[in-house]
Amino acid sequence: MTARTKASRRDWIEAAYRELANTGERGVTINALASRLGVTKGSFYWQFKDRTELVRALLDRWAHERTDEMLGLALGSTPDPRERLRRIQALGREIAPIDRAMRLWARSEPAAQQAVRHADRALLGHISSCLRDLGFGADDARLRALLMLRAWVGGYLVPAPQDDAARADHDEQMLDVLLARLDR
What we know:
- It is a single chain.
- Helix content is 74%, strand content 0%.
- The chain is mainly alpha-helical.
- The chain folds into 2 domains: 42 residues, Arc Repressor Mutant, subunit A; 120 residues, Tetracycline Repressor, domain 2, CATH 1.10.357.
- The longest helix has 25 residues.
- The chain starts with 8 loop residues before the first helix and ends in a 5-residue tail after the last helix.
């Protein structure tokens, strides 16, 4: 089998995305990506001026495509706000590796921090909208949305049960707590 000589710009970005999820930002090197793609390092320079340009494209892909397209898919097909919140929970599990890597990278890279902020604003807006649709006031919806996001991110450190049935029950119980009305 012969090695490919060239990879598309999208191929490089997708390889960087997968590498970020698997090994973190430090694993996103031209050599590692070329190896993953089965091309020479020179192929990279047909698509990008340098690694910085690739990183900008990677951050843009994560902040915009991931947020807008994935949340659109998760939320767009049902009018039921509780079901949309369930889908957000499921989305959180699905994208946890890349989300965790981005958040860790954002601690030391301003551009990654900006991408995370963009994604969080969009996610918080979606969650708040679902909560308002369930009858919560704007302030209460924003607070509960933030709690849901923090639970999502905290889930990287305190994982849910491994068994699918137990995880579904756990997620439903967490949603019940999030949606409980407090007597004031």
